[in-house]
Inverse folding.
């Protein structure tokens, strides 16, 4: 270990408290829901009481915004 201005450096980074990212909504396509992993995600999302949208088809539409940044934010 090295001392710099009376502080010791260690090989361990400082532990930060992490915030969990929570989406505003979750969208599933029919093909995605056929996958076992998607079923696990769906169960977890439902346990957090998040809004779930199951699309009728395997195509995402209606994600365009006024500009590229707005479109990105909607899709995110």
């Amino acid at each position: 270990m090295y001392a710099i201005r009376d502080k010791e450096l260690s090989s361990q980074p400082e532990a930060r408290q992490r915030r969990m990212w929570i989406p505003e909504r979750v969208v599933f396509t029919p093909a995605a829901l056929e996958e076992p992993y998607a079923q696990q995600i769906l169960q977890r999302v439902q346990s957090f009481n998040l809004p779930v949208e199951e699309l009728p088809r395997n195509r995402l539409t209606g994600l365009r915004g006024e500009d590229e940044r707005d479109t990105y934010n909607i899709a995110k």
